[in-house]
Amino acid sequence: MEKVKCDCGHVNPYGTYLCESCGKPLLDDNQSLADMRYEGVARRSQTYSKSVVDKVWNFFSSVKVGIWIIVLILLASMLGTIFPQEMYIPAGERASTYYEQEYGVLGKLYYQLGLHTMYSSWWYMLLIASLGISLVICSLDRVVPLHRALKTQRVTRHKGFLSRQKLFSKTEKMEEPEKSIEKAEKVLKEKHYRIFKEDGNILAEKGRFARWGPYVNHVGLIIFLIGAMLRFFPEMYIDEHIWVREGEQVVIRGTDGEYFLRNDEFIVELYDEEDERFRESFERTGGNPVVKTFQTSATLLKRINNEGPIGLGTEFEEIMQYDIRVNDPLTFDGYSLYQVDYKLNELSEFTFTLQRNEDSSEEDLSDIQFTVDLFNPELVYEFENGYRVEIFQYFPNFYINDQKEPDTLNRIPDNPRIIFEVFTPEMNPDTDRGELSLVGVQVNEALNGDNNYRIRMIDVDMNHVTALTVRRDRTLPILIVGGVIFMIGLVQGSYWYHRRIWLQNRDGEIWVAGHTNKNWHGLKKDFETITKNTAIPMPLDQTDDWNLIEEVEGVKGKDDSSTSK
Amino acid sequence: MTAVQVSSNFLLLAFFLYLAATIFFAVSITGKRFKNKKGEEKNKSGLLGYISAILAIVASLLYFIFRWIASGHAPVSNMFEYTTFLGICMAIAFAIIYPMYRNNFLGLFTMPIVMLIIAYASMFPRDIQPLIPALQSYWLKIHVITVALGQGILAIGFAAGLLYLIRVIDFSKASKKVRWLEFILFSILSTIAYILLGIGFGAANYEAEFNYINEKGIEAQMVYTMPPLISPHEGERIGEGFDPFLATPAIIRSNDLNTVIWSILGGLILYFGLRLLFRKPIGGAIQPLLKAVNPQTVDELSYRAIAIGFPVFTLGGLIFAMIWAQIAWTRFWGWDPKEVWALITFLFYAAYLHLRLSRGWHGEKSAWLCVIGFALIMFNLIFVNLVIAGLHSYA
Ligand code: HEM
């Protein structure tokens, strides 16, 4: 590609339309104003278009394409909010039936199109990935040439450059133009402009660093997107749940058996119904109790001797005690434990005694009492008087399965049933079959004929259970860095403006021009101060075909007729 | 007086101060033609308008502070509180941007919108509600307050965009643009109608009760606060009164729909009443007042408002939101509708900035985008909160 040599001697890359150095328009398009976007520099995307790489590059560097990607993501995201996403449908519901049942034909369609999980669908990911690629390419495409152009710009600019600025004017030949320019320089210095001088001409510049704002924010965005993508690597991200009963100590999942948690106490606190502040609200909503706090008072422990299975010899070290609440997780060593759920009054222990059915007995069995831990029941209970009770089978969450046999749904004692086998002192547990009975809450059935003994429940113990989420997210630092850079770039580009003012002495005429990337109003105000203090005139806004002063006059004249109707 | 009453009184005071500001700004633009003799602008009413706006903001903040004292938490936790605060934030945004451009027309457009938002807010239940555990977080407060501020600044972009459109659109011929603009004005009138009807029927303690069968097939009761034009699913009126003509399916909350119908009817009456009065589109009737508006300035103003509001909104609506979500819900992002709509708003304004910067969408196109952006914010506030209820749903 051939380079373009400007009259001023600067050699520009192919595709440049304003000379990087003096600003002379190089392509003679009939535009009345110079296109100041990216300083009129040549970008790679405009230069090459031969190979596939070039084509891809050009595609993604186009802002038009970038905007389309943004708009497509926007529209697609809307679709996903029409009905709830799968993770928000009620627990236990199947997506395949739920959507149709709840939302009819549209719901079915929603499900069939996969919109119920669309934010993790391949096409949504593809859109996000294109956004990332577009961001990288379009930023690279512009930032390098822009940087070079701003660095090599000369103070003395070509006439064509000046006269084609939005704010421009020139004076007639005047006396001592140097004086006026000098005065203007002082004014601009007071306004914190940086002044560059060359042959009695001035370039006053302010806030150039704002020009890098968009690129900084794009970099932040890219880092953020990379962080978000990294969560697909399991190493980076742990999401586990633990249920911990009061008094119980469990291993914290996801920590490789290193950390343990003991639930010392779980409490639920309600708002005081008498609270004067909320009286109206309670009245309006019918006085349902409102929860104030869920809290697990927990002790975090760390295993000391790290080898081997956990057994009696395992030693623990208490690391800390913490009250875990909603909005106040326990954080340690990169992990966080969140209060997410709870269950009050879960069955934890049954206490039984043994009785003879007909009270003809001379024996006193009231000494026989035993307690069954419903989570971790012991299987054999032996008593001094020779009696022995064994657990034959245990169903923590009893139901009758498809084969019409007793079974358990899971290990949570929501509906516990125990089959006990009772041995009298005369019997041999190894060879004889004892009396079998099925025992549960409000249930007591003999299973092998009439029983002489009856196992009677005399006490029930309940327990609160807390549910905690264990989370470790190693992508967070990356996301934070990305987010911070993004915000810095955003602020840098939005709250500062790049302004430039050119004052040139051309054979006694003063040429005035100004450019800014936003905030023309502010730039015009700066010009006003120059005008006030010097003989330099206010530049005209060449895009403003609407002349304010005339129009106000017009309003004055015309209004009497037009608004007094 | 209790702190709650004090706060309500300050809000009422603020409302009248916003009204005063509106009137001053109105005077400042119409009064110009007989005061401007020396060619210099010696019109004080713009300044008075600004001062009233500042006083109104002070009163609003006193409302905010006293309500905070009364409830013990930042008053941004239900629809009434949040919407009111959004209105206040729009006024604050105006106070920040006005000194840059000294544009009295902006005041004339912004102050009534602020009043409208605050009046709309007061239609929601105003009692102080206890906070459930998930909402007890200072990050939540920071998040919500920053979002409201960002949206308030973006709303200034809307006011300026609307000003621009009414200034430049040619109302003498019927066109799509005119129809859309009239539709926007009609929506504003419907909101006014909703507020007036709400106040009217509220003052009369109007209530109509129905027995009906709800979407789960269970008998339930429903209360209408405006005379029923439509009845709920298999509804039977309790007590006397005429029966509505139309019944609705069970999945529709018919009392809310009834209110919407009333508001639209009210809006239509207001709209066509005004059209009869002016004998031209409402926008066309306002246009002559805006002759002195420099479209370029207003265009830049709307852009500046959005350039200033965008980072604030992003900080509050995405970044602080993620921090809070990480702490409260264990993950910083969960694709819940409220989050997604914040993202949509963010993407929309990002697209706006790029269109403007790189594709030269200035003037009219840009102004339409400002209007659409505000519609998105309102959709977010009203529709997403009340209809697509997610984790964040208030009230
Ligand atoms: C959601 C994603 C994006 C966000 C949040 C974003 C944000 C921004 C912001 C805030 C600006 C500054 C605008 C202003 O000052 O008015 C900007 C400028 C820019 N953006 Fe993006 N952007 C995104 C995606 C993209 C993409 C995909 C492209 C490429 C096709 C792109 C290309 C540009 C360009 C060329 C500029 C102008 C740079 C300059 O003035 O030197 N942006 N962006």
TrEMBL record, chain A:
<feature type="transmembrane region" description="Helical">
    <location>
        <begin position="65"/>
        <end position="83"/>
    </location>
</feature>
<feature type="domain" description="ResB-like">
    <location>
        <begin position="63"/>
        <end position="528"/>
    </location>
</feature>
<dbReference type="Pfam" id="PF05140">
    <property type="entry name" value="ResB"/>
</dbReference>
<protein>
    <submittedName>
        <fullName>Cytochrome c biogenesis protein ResB</fullName>
    </submittedName>
</protein>
<keyword id="KW-0812">Transmembrane</keyword>
<feature type="transmembrane region" description="Helical">
    <location>
        <begin position="122"/>
        <end position="144"/>
    </location>
</feature>
<dbReference type="InterPro" id="IPR007816">
    <property type="entry name" value="ResB-like_domain"/>
</dbReference>
<feature type="transmembrane region" description="Helical">
    <location>
        <begin position="215"/>
        <end position="233"/>
    </location>
</feature>
<keyword id="KW-1133">Transmembrane helix</keyword>
<feature type="transmembrane region" description="Helical">
    <location>
        <begin position="476"/>
        <end position="497"/>
    </location>
</feature>
<keyword id="KW-0201">Cytochrome c-type biogenesis</keyword>
<keyword id="KW-0472">Membrane</keyword>
<dbReference type="InterPro" id="IPR023494">
    <property type="entry name" value="Cyt_c_bgen_Ccs1/CcsB/ResB"/>
</dbReference>
UniProtKB/TrEMBL annotation, chain B:
<dbReference type="Pfam" id="PF01578">
    <property type="entry name" value="Cytochrom_C_asm"/>
</dbReference>
<feature type="transmembrane region" description="Helical">
    <location>
        <begin position="339"/>
        <end position="355"/>
    </location>
</feature>
<feature type="transmembrane region" description="Helical">
    <location>
        <begin position="47"/>
        <end position="70"/>
    </location>
</feature>
<keyword id="KW-1133">Transmembrane helix</keyword>
<keyword id="KW-0201">Cytochrome c-type biogenesis</keyword>
<feature type="transmembrane region" description="Helical">
    <location>
        <begin position="6"/>
        <end position="27"/>
    </location>
</feature>
<feature type="transmembrane region" description="Helical">
    <location>
        <begin position="105"/>
        <end position="124"/>
    </location>
</feature>
<feature type="domain" description="Cytochrome c assembly protein">
    <location>
        <begin position="77"/>
        <end position="199"/>
    </location>
</feature>
<dbReference type="InterPro" id="IPR002541">
    <property type="entry name" value="Cyt_c_assembly"/>
</dbReference>
<feature type="transmembrane region" description="Helical">
    <location>
        <begin position="178"/>
        <end position="204"/>
    </location>
</feature>
<protein>
    <submittedName>
        <fullName>C-type cytochrome biogenesis protein CcsB</fullName>
    </submittedName>
</protein>
<keyword id="KW-0812">Transmembrane</keyword>
<feature type="domain" description="Cytochrome c assembly protein">
    <location>
        <begin position="296"/>
        <end position="392"/>
    </location>
</feature>
<keyword id="KW-0472">Membrane</keyword>
<feature type="transmembrane region" description="Helical">
    <location>
        <begin position="144"/>
        <end position="166"/>
    </location>
</feature>
<dbReference type="InterPro" id="IPR017562">
    <property type="entry name" value="Cyt_c_biogenesis_CcsA"/>
</dbReference>
<feature type="transmembrane region" description="Helical">
    <location>
        <begin position="260"/>
        <end position="278"/>
    </location>
</feature>
<feature type="transmembrane region" description="Helical">
    <location>
        <begin position="82"/>
        <end position="98"/>
    </location>
</feature>
<feature type="transmembrane region" description="Helical">
    <location>
        <begin position="305"/>
        <end position="327"/>
    </location>
</feature>
<dbReference type="InterPro" id="IPR045062">
    <property type="entry name" value="Cyt_c_biogenesis_CcsA/CcmC"/>
</dbReference>
<feature type="transmembrane region" description="Helical">
    <location>
        <begin position="367"/>
        <end position="391"/>
    </location>
</feature>
